Amino acid sequence: MTPESLGKMLAEFLNGSRAAVVVEDGAVVFDLAEAKYSISGEYSKCLLHLWSSERNVVRRVLDAEVKGATLRLQVQRMGQSRPTRLDICRDRDQRSPVARRAARVAYEPRLRRALERNFPGWTVARLTTSMDLKRSFGPAYLRGWMRLGQRALAIVGVNDEETQGTVDGALTCGILWLEECRLAQLERRVVEGLVLVVPKGGAALTAQRMAHLHPTAAKWHLNEFDEREDTLVRLEVGDHGNLSTRLVRAVDEGQALEHFAASIARIRAILPQAEVVVLSPAHVSFRRCGLEFAQARIAHDPRNFQAGEEIVFGLGAEERVLDERNENEFCNLVRLAAAVRRKDGPKNHPLWRMHPERWLESIASANIGDLDARLRSDCVYRQVPAFSAADRGMIDILTATHEGRLAVIELKADEDIHLPLQGLDYWARVAWHQERGEFGKFGYFPGHEVSLEKPLLMLVTPALHVHPATDTILRYLSPDLEWDLVGIDERWREELRVVFRKRARDFRNQIADCGSGRQTSIPA
């Protein structure tokens, strides 16, 4: 294959693989939901450049072949003559369906033996991986229950060959399975709580979440299972004071906008309505209704180590440096985004459908008072980095009420069963930094006093896209957490309008005290 045909094949595959992963030497080295790439041809070579916040690599592509949902590349590392293999995979789980099924079948007897050994006197009554789409249960989670007289515990386990994303979703499944077991055993047994089993080393995020569940609604047991050593270890989840997280200093937006004034003027000469979002002192993003089409950044010339300003453009993970050769292509892209990315744009166009949550974030941040009259419109932070030992995420919107109480806003444009616990993740990190007075120290909310009251959590999603399981999960959250579930009109691109609101206080009396010996069933 020629370098030109290789480049075309790469571009076509990657354009349709916006959430793909890049695998090299058997390990995932890039996640294209977060990382960036560029394809170039220099000196008659096809070069693939991949970079993220963690690493930066360049590979010369020698050959390519599509195998199902995987693009297999023969590549050459810089300075090495021997070719190696690099795979770009649309499916994050690289196992075949047969291998996945075999791992799940083998896991069941191992977990059964470990549970009966670590819960003496208890009998594991049932374990299954059968799919139940009506109740949102998939085959990745082994579900069951065990009994001791009139007492029972719900069980959910995840084997060590599942992806980390699947492991992190286990608590959502566990809460729903606990509720299902309580309803099924309503007249026969008291289902006291949940035994959640995850692979060794995979419990960090789940432990953080479990620390903020309702302490008397159920007995919460979190365990790590080492399948190789056949050991089951129970983890303590009640103490969340040692949450490992760090806050990024707030950016002086005025200074950054002044620094990039030339690039901003250049972009707005083509698209006056372009949104300018400051990402860092050396980085600004240009968007149209939340769709990023370009960035301006400080770059270093490798020839003389001098710093200069450059504009890169592209949609999704692909980036190209703007220069004289591609300026017409860039202008056409910006004009296309302007023509398509509008409330009355062509709904069947890929650019109109792309990144709906960024579009919703753009509208919500500009009209924050329409979500809740308590919120300030002059202190709105978008896409605040939220680092922890478990992962790196972005808080959609961080703001405050007129009284100075922090508010964490999590947005979903489409139905998502994990919305409550994902919002809980960010709320916990904000609460941790607030307790330590770090927002003022790091430059957030200048001129305003941040209240010591625990933050609000607002979950915002179109009213017809609220997952049916959301209410059940919310009822199991800690009573210390004040949350609002805000359903907005489906036509939010035209007007942001709240059509219903549910608050935590409306649910407080629907959780019975497990310690009283009563069945802790929660009405649907």
Structural features, described:
The chain has helices at 3-15, 97-118, 164-168, 170-184, 204-210, 253-259, 261-270, 327-340, 350-353, 356-366, 368-371, 419-435, 438-441, 470-475, and strands at 21-24, 27-31, 36-42, 45-51, 56-67, 70-77, 84-89, 123-128, 142-148, 151-157, 190-199, 219-226, 231-235, 245-247, 275-280, 283-288, 291-300, 307-313, 320-321, 381-388, 392-400, 406-411, 456-462, 482-488, 498-503. It is an alpha+beta fold and 524 residues long. It folds into four domains: 3-89; 97-235, Trna Endonuclease, Chain: A, domain 1; 253-288 and 291-353, no CATH class; 356-516, 3-Layer(aba) Sandwich (Trna Endonuclease, Chain: A, domain 1). The strands form four sheets. It has a seven-stranded antiparallel β-sheet, covered by helices on one side. Strands 14-20-21-22-23-24-25 form a seven-stranded mixed β-sheet, with helices on both faces. Strands 8-9-10-11-12-13 form a six-stranded mixed β-sheet, with helices on both faces. β11, α5 and β12 (219-226) form a beta-alpha-beta unit. The radius of gyration is 25 Å and the shape is globular. Mean pLDDT is 87; it is low at 512-524.
How widely separated are the two ends?
Answer: 60 Å
Globally, the shape reads globular
- Rg over C-alpha atoms, rounded to the nearest angstrom: 25 Å
Total number of helices: 14
Largest sheet: number of strands, sense, barrel closure = 7 strands, antiparallel
